Amino acid sequence: MPRTPEQHRAMRAATRERVRTAAIRLFCRRGYAGVDMRAIAAEAGISTGSIYRHFATKDELYDDLVAEAATGLRTLARSFTDTDLVVEPLRGFVEVFLADLSLDTGAVEFYLLMNQVFASGVEAGPERGAAVEDLLRAHREVTGAVVTLIERGRGRGLTRPAPAAELATCFFATLGGLAMTRSALGEAFVAPSVATVTGILLVEETTV
Question: What is the pTM of this model?
Answer without folding.
Answer: 0.85
